[in-house]
Design a protein that fits this description.
Radius of gyration: 23 Å
Mean pLDDT: 91
Structural class: alpha+beta
Distance between the termini: 48 Å
Oligomer: single chain
Strand order of the largest sheet: 15-19-14-18-16-17
Strand content: 15-25%
CATH topology of the largest domain: Dipeptide-binding Protein, domain 3
CATH superfamily of the largest domain: Dipeptide-binding Protein, Domain 3
CATH class of the largest domain: Alpha Beta
Number of helices: 13
Length: about 500
């Protein structure tokens, strides 16, 4: 199957809505300089909400880490701002008619940050490392299907997989790193991206510098970017107003309204699914009626208005509405307004007529999730559920909740990539990402059918069934896809929104 034919088929069913800058809140964005003439040089400080969990691109877990590493590392292909794949380390690729062999042609003249040219050996090493062929440890689960990586010639690498999957090409965004550098990647990360690694200080931030030999001519504009860790949303606002940071991509609606006029405030749909995630393995959340009661108790309309200014997209299951050919509208199952009487009825049937105590663990550095939690606590009271917020530091949340699954419930966001299977994959029983401990043999069976199907309409049918199973079981109380709203100084331009969670600094520039 030729690359262009596959791309046409994929885009026919996987096209995501183009994310363009628009107003924050209900006002028009002021001072958008994207159309002004770019100026080369200068540096910017970007505020980020959490520390880096790993500088090794194959081992990084947190979306907040990956959004930064996007500037340092590239795969054979990479995402563009329209949700399409563009060639990166590879200049071209061909997929066999049976979908089992991927042949990549390496880009001429592409270099690592250390000045060395990218070779076929580097590509082979990187893919064998992430797939587990190198030492038996799989670092990227989607690529575990790789059976062999063969060097055809100095510019050509052939990858053979065990089963055909129309979504697999998107996993070749996996970073290409120098051969043998895996053990050193954490201390000395070397990629091919528009910026090279300069320094990292825990709990402070990371500095990157312009890659002068970057393959995309004319990029980047900036000489240096500092990603500065700001754990408190109040501190972030003060930093913006005090001009110690230039860009902040995580505004709440109230912050956006406060900054209108003095900053460019730009907004677009995100790729984040926010939910009150429920640990299905702990009492009383191991009872489906209790989980359903929680879903009925939530007033998603009010959450949207209070936290997002009405700009979020309400959802009933784990799929982005922008994946239009796969998304199923399921908000009517529990409703978008609260139904406390139905919630009380289910709690009584489950053996909790007087309600129960619920702890909601929230990463305190995320103002959006903290504000959501405050609203949810009040809504649950009406159903007899006495909820309290346990605000924790990001690293604690990552180790205890996400990795250790040592929590009762949590409000956070999970990110998607450009494929419909990405979010649904994590709810398989044995998935390492299944931090809610959802278990359904039927779900596992249908997911495997979806993955193995090469008929895109049939695949869409399976994904629809998976969404329905997840909502019927109330595996989690899904809430919304929040907007992503940024503040940027008025003399900057070129910021691009992506359908994946990245902060692409290569296109940002000064206008004066």
């Amino acid at each position: 199957m030729r690359k262009k034919l596959l791309s046409y088929l994929l885009m026919a069913f996987l096209t995501m809505t183009t994310l363009g800058g628009c107003a924050g809140g209900t006002d028009e964005s002021s001072g958008d300089n994207s159309s002004k003439e770019p100026v080369y040089g200068g540096s910017v400080v970007v505020g980020i909400q959490q520390d880096i969990d790993s500088l090794d691109p194959h081992k990084a877990t947190a979306a907040g880490t990956k959004e930064i590493l996007f500037n340092i590392f590239e795969g054979l292909v990479k995402a563009d701002e329209n949700g399409n794949l563009m060639n990166a380390v590879a200049s071209d690729y061909v997929i066999s008619d049976d979908g089992l062999v991927y042949t990549f042609t390496l880009r001429d003249g592409i270099k690592f940050h250390n000045g060395n040219p990218v070779t076929a050996e580097d590509v082979k090493y990187s893919l064998e490392r992430v797939s587990g062929l190198l030492d038996g440890t799989v670092l990227i689960s989607a690529l575990s299907t790789i059976e062999s990586v063969d060097i055809v010639d100095a510019k050509t690498v052939q990858v053979t997989v065990g089963s055909a999957n129309t979504e697999l090409i998107y996993s070749f965004v996996a970073a290409i790193i120098p051969q043998g550098s895996g053990e050193d990647a954490q201390a000395d990360p070397i990629g091919t991206g528009p910026f090279s690694f300069v320094s990292y200080a825990p709990q402070e931030g990371i500095v990157v510098a312009k890659h002068d030999e970057y393959w995309q001519k004319g990029l980047p504009y900036l000489d240096e970017v500092e990603f500065k860790i700001i754990n408190s949303p109040d501190t972030a606002l003060l930093n913006l107003q005090g001009e110690s940071i230039d860009i902040y991509p995580y505004l709440t609606d109230s912050q956006a309204n406060e900054l209108q006029g003095s900053f460019q405030v730009l907004s677009a749909p995100s790729d984040v699914v926010q939910a009150l995630f429920l640990n299905n393995a702990v009492e009383p959340l191991n009872n489906v009626k209790v989980r359903q009661a929680i879903c009925y108790a939530l007033d998603k309309d009010s959450i949207n208005e209070f936290v997002a200014g009405g700009n979020a997209s309400l959802i009933g299951s784990a799929m982005l509405p922008s994946l239009k050919d796969y998304y199923v509208e399921l908000n009517d199952v529990y409703g978008t307004g609260a139904n406390p009487e139905k919630a009380k009825q289910l709690l009584s049937e489950a053996g909790y007529p007087n309600g129960f105590e619920l702890e909601i663990t929230v990463p305190s550095n995320y103002a959006y999730h903290m504000q959501t939690a405050e609203v949810v606590v009040e809504q649950l009271k009406a159903a007899g559920i006495n909820a309290k917020i346990d605000a924790v530091e990001w690293n604690t949340w990552l180790t205890e909740c996400y990795q250790g699954r040592n929590y009762q419930s949590t409000i956070c966001g999970i990110t998607c990539d450009m494929t419909p299977g990405y979010l649904l994959n994590r709810f398989q029983t044995e998935s390492s990402k299944n931090f809610i401990n959802y278990q359904s043999a039927k779900y596992d069976e249908v997911f495997q059918k979806a993955q193995s199907s090469l008929d895109l309409k049939e695949k869409a049918k399976y994904y629809s069934e998976l969404q329905q199973l997840l909502v019927d079981d109330a595996g989690t109380a899904f809430i919304q896809v929040p907007p992503i709203t940024i503040a940027m100084k008025n003399n900057l331009g070129g910021y691009k929104f992506y359908p994946v969670y990245v902060q692409d600094m290569s296109t940002v520039y000064y206008t004066e």
